[in-house]
Amino acid sequence: MDSEVLLRNRPFSHIYVEKRVLEDKEYSVKAKEIMGHFPEACIIEIEHYKDVFNRHKQCFPEQHESQALVLAVKQGNLVYPGAEVCQSMGNEHFYYTSCMMNCLFDCEYCYLKGMYPSGNMVVFLNLRDIFKRVQELLREHPVYLCVSYDTDLLAAEALTGYVKEWMKFTDSNPGLTIEVRTKAGNIEFERLFSKPLQRSESVIFAFTLSPEYVITHYEHRTGSLKGRIDSIKKALECGLAVRLCFDPMIYCPDWKKEYEIMMETVISEIPMDKIRDVSVGSFRLSEDYLKTMRRNMPGSAVVQYPYENDGGVYHYSHKLTNDMESWMVSRLGEHVPENRIFRWGEE
Ligand code: SF4
């Protein structure tokens, strides 16, 4: 066995807990519930999650292999205006929030690898404060909120139960629409709600779909294409709103053939007339994040690809971007009305 593997801690063998979590009755109950999943973990009390998460000279890919868990209380801004590189899907009041930082999945091209100094996973326990902030915004206007950015919330549902909490909150707060984006497969939707949602259109499950080649080579630990499609079918059966995301499209050898094989499966398996909408976009990433990722992942084809830089954002050449995205839009156009296809950059 590789000696490097022998030296690694098991994932979540160490759990760091902020002092203020332990001092609050509600947070400490939730923390104990989460820690209960790891009875052998070493628990370490800390002042602030940043003392662990923001340390200098951490190596994201190494840490991600044996993630520690950090339980914390989020302070400062709790809800942010939607980022420029993200699609608003036609929504005027577009926001996102992060009740977790980092992900159980391990996509090589994930921007988190460039954005965060640490591969450890942080769970914020004060969901109630985020809910309060969302309610303040709702007093001003309707809110479209992406809740599964900076993580894949469904991947960690067994640990946190947060998707269930968000669904409950959204259902009882008119004006709020949330997007839960995921690459998870075989999701047990029946576990997510005990009774049907009254406002089922307000909770959008957004599934990122990729060809098997991309999943195998770059989207480690995520659901297989079949697993994701099964989840989509289950979500539709449960009457949930489903979005398909062909974003980011990732270039790979013979990309058209790989994407065509995927599309044939998607179209034959999913009732496309039941899909709420579709997003299309190719890989793009800020210069700073990609620089860090290139330093940390010298052997990754998707990270080391010779992207072009436009004003601080790396992307494929304009020709390749256009070839890939136009092909996808036109392929989807055979099954989805044009006004339900959102292409990145056209908004
Ligand atoms: S599923 Fe999303 S958040 Fe998780 S590693 Fe992949 S790209 Fe990143």
Task: Describe the fold and architecture.
- The chain is α/β, with parallel strands linked by helices.
- It has helices spanning 3-7, 19-23, 25-35, 49-53, 60-65, 112-115, 127-138, 157-160, 162-171, 212-218, 225-237, 255-269, 287-296, 301-304, 318-333, and strands at 14-18, 42-46, 69-72, 80-81, 94-96, 100-101, 106-107, 121-124, 143-146, 176-182, 203-208, 219-220, 241-249, 277-282, 284-286, 308-310, 313-315, 341-343.
- α12 (255-269) packs parallel to α15.
- The protein is globular, with a radius of gyration of 20 Å.
- The chain starts with a helix and ends with a strand.
- Residues 1-5 have low confidence and may be disordered.
- The structure holds iron/sulfur cluster (SF4).
- The site of iron/sulfur cluster has 10 residues, from β7.
Which features would summarize this protein structure in a list?
37% helix, 5-stranded mixed β-sheet, 347 residues, binds iron/sulfur cluster, 8-stranded mixed β-sheet, 18 strands, alpha/beta
Could you give the count of β-strands? 18
Main beta-sheet annotation: 8 strands, mixed
Strand arrangement within the widest β-sheet reads: 4-5-9-10-11-13-14-18
Helix fraction by DSSP (H/I, runs of at least 4): 25-40%
Which structural class do you get from the secondary structure elements?
Answer: alpha/beta
Low-confidence stretches: 1-5
**Bound ligand species:** iron/sulfur cluster
- Discrete helix count: 15
The backbone outline, from C-alpha atoms, is: globular
Strand content: 15-25%
Please state the oligomeric state of the protein chains shown: single chain
Radius of gyration: 20 Å
Mean pLDDT: 94
End-to-end distance: 51 Å
